[in-house]
């Protein structure tokens, strides 16, 4: 008989505690300083009760004693919290403009016409700052890089961004295109990103090329400018020009200049040959492909002279009057007769 009674009481107690309950959707929140959070919450009580009052509390250590203090009496929470629940089953709370001091345990309490009830459980809220760091911050291409997001939260899910794009791995071998500004965020709150930190990736000169500025064809006596271009970080700061003559059997290279631009004010045939630019920064150096310069004798004028001279000589021979006429007459007659009608001379 007694056994049955105890059983009945226990059963009753279970029913009662099931009827009276507060449930938090999440037990833990990790939130970035300055943002806001909604602590999602629902509560239950026997159907014949009705709710008169609700309140949220924070667990606080006061004079060495752990107490629950109503948010509404705490000046630091003034205008920063809002009850989003109701007097039925919803007890959600919104906290805004979160500060690190808001970190702690939060409790819900409600009062019906018969009982006041505290939530047994609490919600733990961590308010954190995010501090992105990169180790090391300056690397050479190929080095390992580790991204770290400093936070006071316990193992939050962190995501990384480089210049706004998601970075999938927080550890990687740096490539040239990994350079940029990195920031971290908590996955659930992507919009609250840490201050960015820059990753600088150094690499030796790449894509070294020579830009040639010259007349075409390149005639002796004209000028030519060779400009060395490259992609490098830091920018190339030393250049060497190498030359191999077209007229020499030896493949030996001569150093013919330094500086980004190689100028030859007046080219000669001997300048014909291949040119190579070598660009260098503190990481390393590399060379351009060979550039061939072919200098041509100013043959145009020679050809004209060679072609025209015999004609002039022949024509002069035929046209010259074989008389003893005065010098002036002679010149006049050449100018008049020959320049207009040379074929008529004979
Ligand atoms: C009830 O709870 C939800 C979240 O679970 C919240 O969005 C909503 O605003 C709450 N309040 C009411 C009155 O529905
Ligand atoms: C870089 O990381 C890889 C694995 O990600 C590892 O195998 C390698 O040894 C690391 N290199 C250095 C220099 O630490
Ligand atoms: C990174 O940020 C700095 C200044 O904050 C800016 O000068 C630089 O251009 C940024 N880099 C990239 C790749 O956006
Ligand atoms: C080098 O040239 C290649 C091909 O044109 C290009 O894809 C690459 O981005 C260049 N590298 C750099 C660092 O500019
Ligand atoms: C190449 O030559 C032209 C005309 O002589 C000049 O306008 C131009 O600036 C030169 N370019 C370079 C890169 O020297
Ligand atoms: C090129 O090599 C050949 C044979 O080795 C030699 O006879 C000739 O003189 C060389 N020419 C020059 C310009 O050095």
Automatic annotation (TrEMBL):
Transmembrane feature ranges: 298-317
Signal peptide start-end: 1-18
Record protein name field: Ig-like domain-containing protein
Residues annotated as domain Ig-like: 128-200, 205-294
Protein source organism: Crenichthys baileyi
InterPro entries with a match to the protein in the record: Ig-like_dom, Ig-like_dom_sf, Ig-like_fold, Ig_sub, Ig_sub2, Ig_V-set
Swiss-Prot/TrEMBL keywords: Membrane, Signal, Transmembrane, Transmembrane helix
PANTHER family in UniProt: B-CELL RECEPTOR CD22-RELATED (PTHR46013:SF4), VASCULAR CELL ADHESION MOLECULE 1 (PTHR46013)
Annotated SMART domains: IG, IGc2
């Amino acid at each position: 008989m007694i056994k049955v009674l105890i059983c009945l009481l226990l059963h009753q107690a279970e029913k009662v505690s099931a009827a009276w309950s507060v449930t938090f959707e999440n037990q833990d929140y990790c939130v970035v300083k300055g943002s806001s959070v909604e602590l999602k919450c629902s509560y239950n009580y026997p159907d014949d009760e009705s709710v008169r009052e609700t309140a949220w509390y924070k667990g606080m250590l006061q004079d060495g004693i752990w107490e629950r203090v109503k948010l509404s009496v705490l000046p630091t929470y003034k205008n920063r919290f809002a009850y989003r629940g109701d007097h039925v089953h919803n007890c959600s709370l919104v906290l805004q403009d979160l500060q690190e001091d808001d970190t702690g345990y939060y409790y819900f309490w409600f009062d019906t016409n018969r009982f006041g009830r505290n939530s047994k459980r609490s919600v733990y809220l961590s308010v954190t700052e995010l501090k992105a760091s990169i180790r090391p911050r300056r690397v050479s291409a190929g080095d390992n890089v580790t991204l770290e997001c400093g936070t006071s939260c316990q193992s939050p899910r962190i995501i990384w961004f480089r210049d706004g794009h998601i970075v999938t791995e927080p550890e990687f071998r740096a490539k040239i295109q990994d350079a940029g500004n990195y920031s971290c965020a908590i996955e659930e709150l992507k919009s609250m990103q840490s201050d960015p930190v820059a990753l600088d990736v150094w690499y030796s000169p790449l894509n070294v090329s020579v830009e040639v500025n010259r007349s075409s064809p390149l005639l002796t006596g004209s000028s030519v400018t060779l400009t060395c271009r490259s992609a490098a970080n830091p920018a190339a700061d030393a250049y060497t020009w190498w030359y191999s003559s077209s007229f020499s059997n030896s493949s030996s290279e001569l150093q013919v200049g330094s500086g980004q631009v190689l100028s030859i004010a007046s080219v000669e045939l001997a300048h014909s040959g291949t040119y190579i630019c070598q660009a260098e920064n503190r990481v390393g150096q590399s060379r351009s492909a060979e550039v061939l310069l072919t200098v041509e004798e100013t043959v145009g004028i020679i050809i004209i002279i060679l072609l025209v001279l015999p004609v002039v000589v022949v024509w002069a021979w035929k046209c010259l009057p074989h008389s003893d006429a005065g010098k002036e007459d002679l010149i006049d007659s050449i100018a008049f007769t020959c320049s207009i009608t040379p074929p008529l001379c004979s």
